[in-house]
Amino acid sequence: MSDLAIRTEGLTKNYGEVEALTDLNLEVKMGEVFGFLGPNGAGKTTAIRTMLDLIRPTAGRATIAGLDSHADSVEIRRHIGYLPSDVSMYTNLTGRDMITYFSNLRGGVDAGLVDELSERLQADLSKKIGDYSSGNRQKIGLILAFMSKPAVIIMDEPSSGLDPLVQREFQTMMREVAAEGRCVFLSSHTLSEVQRAADRVGIIRNGHLVDVEFVDDLRSKAVRRVELQFTGPVDAAAFAAVPGVRDVDVASHHAVMSFDGNMDALLGVATDRYTLVDINTQEADLEEIFLQYYRTDEKSTA
Amino acid sequence: MMLANVFTKTTRDRLPAGVVGAVTVAALLFFSMWVYEGIDTSFYYDLPAGVLELVGINPEGSGAGGIAFGAIYNLIGALVLGGLAISFGASAIAGEEQDGTFGLLLGNPVGRRQVLISKACSVILVVGVMTLLMWGAGVGSAAVLDVPTDDLFIGSMTFALFLNSLFYGFLALAIGSSTGNRGAASGASAGLMVVGYLAATLLPLADLEWLAKFFPWYYYNSSAPINNGLDWSHVAVLGGLSIVAFTVAFVGIARRDLKDKGTNVTILDRLRANPLTSKVMERVAGSARVSRISVKTFSDYQGLFTITAAIMFYMGVLIPPLYNFIPEDFINIFATFPDALVAMIGGVDMGTPTGFLTGEVFSLVGPIAIIVLAATMGSRSLAGEEENRTMDLLMSNPISRSKLVVEKVQAMIAWAFLFGVATFSATWIGVRIGGLEEVGVQGIASISLLLTLFGLVYGGIALIASAATGKRGVATMVATGVALATWFMFSFFPLSETLEPIARLSPFHWYLGSDPLLNGFDWRGAALLAGTFVILVIASIPLFQRRDLRLGKS
Question: Which residues of chain B neighbour A74 with C-beta distances below 8 Å?
Fold first, then answer.
């Protein structure tokens, strides 16, 4: 099997005049959790449905596990697990029936694994789908996606409706899949979820892929809030000269600034001239980074 | 107090279906008038009154206009309008409940009864618009075709039609509001309508008019509003019944717990929950039911099959013995029917047991029942999964789209054949009870099998529309439209010499044209029906393969 879990080349989907997805080029590797991040209506679901041959691209192509998304669609589906967003199931079946049904359609599902998964997610399989809360239905959907140990698991907004404890277990499950050399591709509009689970993130907006970054790189690139405490008064200009420093605010012994440069350089200035007492830096979370991307994107399109 | 928003939204949702239904019936009226206008219709009025009423025509009427109104508006029109009104009434409250939108609606500062009143007003308006359209079409068609209507009460007739439809709509509303079960509301109302129509037309034939008076349909048609104007006592009965139905809804809706976005509890589910039967049922309803797509699909239609097969069972068992009650002189008159009239009632001699059975069981109710079964399955097969948003999940499994079509079709074929078996058994029992020795087992088997194949053709039409569009509503409308058009071709085109050859293109002709109950199995007809079905299924596959799957109804 190919090292590449998912590869799209110029994948484009238009609905009449509306461009839902434009020229998506993406490579997702086996052994990683890939987060596909964007607000509602950004084109995440369109991208996923196109990759899965549920809808057909206007231009471009996609391969999953090295197989062509259209020509080999049936074969592909042997190797993937898929959880659609806002998943609907057959309301007249019980959770257990639903799992049995899909096991029969899929073949080769280990009943022991189903039990293990439902235990870990605390899923109740005895009730009818129509009587489940959305969170419980989501758990059944997760079991369906994971139960055949597929090479690639694609999930569209998977954490909706899950309580925090189950979310944590779900994060662990995703990391395990990646550790086994398989791949998880999850779309989300909530960053905290992706931040915890994903290795890399693709950011999509208005049908365009804005950027793909390692989560760690994103963080290191990101603006931090740095607070420095000294024994005596300091000069604001000294810090402002350091590359990456912005918005310096000095009040006698205390300096606060925004910083997205090399920490070494900043500390060099701080310790060369003054005596540093305390340092406090706050990591910007993805939320801010995300907003930053959008702001810049807005500026460039405006 | 009425809620303008609820009223407007409901009306906007229902009006398109209502207009399509009314326009279709109006078109049938126009064409039948056109056909009748070209032939000598005087023979109709040599026939005894009871016979004419059987085909919906009033004996005192005159000319092409009277016959056309009788045959189209009084029968097909009333069934179509009544059926639509029932679906509006059943969806009004129970539909919102089962879709899970009723709770959301009541999250606003509105009362249940306010919603009910708004919905009821919307039913009145939509049914009103439908009848108004049909009134206009009736007057207009007569004017365009230069058919005299001086002695016809078109307004009275359409008003009676309005009231009749409204009653069934309100009946469905009452059952739906009191139980929250849409299926029960539409099933029971439609059942009463069909049974009532048969009772009101058949019982007087057997000198049982007093019994017919227990069925609401009697108050719609027995006074022949098209010829006599309105019989106000009958108007009062239908109006009163409608008010009673509304009152039941008004009381019922406030007195119970509303259902959550619901699951239907089937008989299988009950057996599964019962400790005595749970072990066996767990296999049947549980693991066996979900063994593959065709089996699951099959299982999903237990309810619909039960309703349609029950109607057929009732007809099959009851109609044959009824033949014995028809007075002797009636039978003799049937034998002297002119060809043109014979063609209209299905090309059979109503004076013989086989002809009577064909006319009463197999030429209208049988086709309607199996078309409802097969076309519902056909239209929901693919579009239903898409509109219910289950298609994406289903297609994440390693199955091809063509395989999915085939599996869905297998379930449709299975139910259609079981419907045929039910029809055969019921008719055989009925014939035994009635002691109609002229009707052979072979004939019953032949017509039942042909009926099965016939139904599959319309299932195939619904399927291909479903595969091509992913829209259940479109598929249902296409299948219904084709059914009405082909029924019309078969029933009315033979009356005109120039149109007669076209009538042979109708699946109704392939099914009934050879008079299979009398003459046995028609291989040619069967081959045409089966061939058409197979072609429709095969053609559905590429149409389904090449398009984007829909996600929900948007």
Answer: 398-400
